[in-house]
């Protein structure tokens, strides 16, 4: 069995749905824990309720811990609440999973942890998991500390722990979403698939892994990406500028990072399916659909 915390949320609900639909090799029962009511929730509980969590985790081989609170700089009160949920909640999840005999723990984290290190660099940064985190907000601080708790507890889980640092996957305007897929974004379907792979893949051990779309760029492109990404884009995808003109979109004026996913490919077999090319093609199809509909001959 796999249990997902935060299973009513944007990511957690997708993971549970994917497991229930049999789109993976997981098989077996699935459970979801959240304080909100939803079709993807089997156990209603606050993430700090260790008693209910232990009950929900009993018999599970893996726990995927997505539950958390997001937010920008905000107020001190918001920062304290973020820390209570993201750090305190992770402590409770670890203890409950250990007590229930769970074999593997997967934590959702964020590539936003790299923000400070990326912004201080002169050229675009090829972001691997070796880049030291440089959190800049209470949320990022809380995710760094939650990661540390999980990694410190890895020895308590027979199949180890995996931390997934995920790129941007929440909804945004189409131009922004497709731009992000060039270097830092990721489709939520690929994020859900990565979590399931991390829970399923036996022998992967303990790891910290970046999860993002497959960028068209290569490390040798980084020197020019920060100044002007268009020459590199022309080399990798000559059709892009024409497609953007058709859509009335803007290319990014500068790119400060490229999130590398080689470690996730090797460790858990991560293979994103909804990358820049696919996202752009989908938007071109949607843009052309009204014209195709108007031009279609009437039938009757």
UniProtKB/TrEMBL annotation:
UniProt cross-references to InterPro entries, sorted A to Z: Epimerase_deHydtase, Lipid_A_modif_metabolic_enz, NAD(P)-bd_dom_sf
Pfam families recorded: Epimerase
Signal peptide (UniProt feature, chain positions): none
Sequence ranges assigned to domain NAD-dependent epimerase/dehydratase in this UniProt record: 2-168
Protein name: NAD-dependent epimerase/dehydratase domain-containing protein
């Amino acid at each position: 069995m796999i249990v997902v915390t935060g299973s009513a949320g944007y990511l957690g609900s997708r993971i549970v749905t994917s497991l229930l639909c049999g789109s993976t090799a997981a098989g077996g029962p699935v459970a979801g824990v959240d304080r909100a009511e939803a079709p993807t929730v089997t156990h209603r509980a606050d993430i700090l309720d260790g008693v209910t969590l232990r009950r929900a985790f009993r018999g599970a081989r893996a726990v995927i811990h997505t539950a958390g609170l997001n937010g920008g700089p905000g107020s001190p009160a918001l920062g304290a609440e973020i820390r209570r949920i993201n750090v305190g909640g992770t402590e409770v999840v670890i203890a409950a999973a250990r007590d229930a005999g769970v074999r593997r723990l997967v934590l959702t984290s964020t590539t936003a942890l790299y923000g400070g290190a990326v912004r201080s660099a002169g050229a675009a940064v090829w972001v691997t998991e070796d880049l030291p985190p440089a959190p800049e907000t209470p949320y990022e601080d809380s995710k760094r500390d939650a990661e540390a708790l999980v990694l410190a507890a890895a020895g308590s889980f027979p199949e180890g722990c995996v931390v997934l640092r995920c790129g941007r996957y929440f909804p945004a305007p189409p131009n922004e979403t497709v731009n992000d897929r060039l270097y830092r974004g990721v489709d939520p379907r690929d994020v859900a698939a990565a979590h399931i792979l991390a829970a399923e893949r036996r022998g992967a051990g303990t790891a910290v892994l970046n999860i993002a779309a497959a960028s068209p760029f290569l490390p040798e492109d980084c020197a020019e990406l920060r100044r002007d990404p268009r020459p590199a884009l022309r080399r990798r995808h000559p059709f892009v500028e024409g497609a953007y003109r058709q859509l009335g979109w803007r290319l990014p004026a500068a790119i400060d990072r490229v999130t590398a996913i080689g470690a996730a490919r090797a460790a858990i077999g991560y293979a994103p399916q909804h990358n820049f090319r696919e996202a752009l093609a989908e938007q071109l199809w949607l843009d052309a659909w009204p014209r195709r509909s108007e031009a279609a001959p009437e039938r009757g």
